[in-house]
Amino acid sequence: MLREEVQAGTGETSTLTMLFTTPVEAVDGALRANTDVVTEVLTTRLTNVIREQLGESYSPYAFSFITNDPGAFVQTFVQVTGSPDRIGSVGDLVIAELADLAADGPTEREFDGAYAQVEEAYGFVDNDSFLEEIINDAIWPDRDIQEYFDEFSALGDVTADTVREYITDHVPTGQYIQVAVLPR
């Protein structure tokens, strides 16, 4: 775990950025589908806790994705804005919520909402996203474009438990980089 504070910018708002990275042996449609659902679960959970319950940040943001350079990795990026004097405690809260998701998984409501959003998004594949996948397949020869097609059918196998397992395996609460940018 690496935590740093930087004084930069102006205003009265701080930004907390966290990055979690884990290597993966193989990328397949199931991993990709779980990644998409986890993104929605994390954003929903952080929004409900940090914004709705604490009134601390208007728009917490989380994004989990797979990168293939230099090898296959799952990365999860979390960004939250907030008061400079409480941004450290917000980081602790993020870790606590991630630990809860790893231990107990998402609530039924969180999972159902996230699943529905991903299912709807999968219904809107356009030429741009398809062309991006073809280009990525050409750039990274170890990558198989079939993974892209498999994620659509693999969505049916995503459950609250597979989301919990994904978070346990790929969003390690003891291994991350955290940078807090505080106003000068």
In percent terms, what proportion of residues is strand? 15-25%
Order of SSEs: EEHEEHHHHHE
For the residues shown, what is the average pLDDT? Answer: 89
The helix tally amounts to: 6
Overall description:
With 184 residues, the protein is an alpha+beta fold. Helix content is 49%, strand content 21%. The protein is built from six helices and five strands, in the order ββαββαααααβ. The protein has helices spanning 29-53, 87-104, 108-122, 127-139, 146-154, 160-170, and strands at residues 2-7, 14-23, 61-67, 73-82, 177-182. It has a five-stranded mixed sheet. Strand 3 and strand 4 (73-82) form a beta hairpin. It is globular and about 50 Å long. The mean pLDDT is 89.
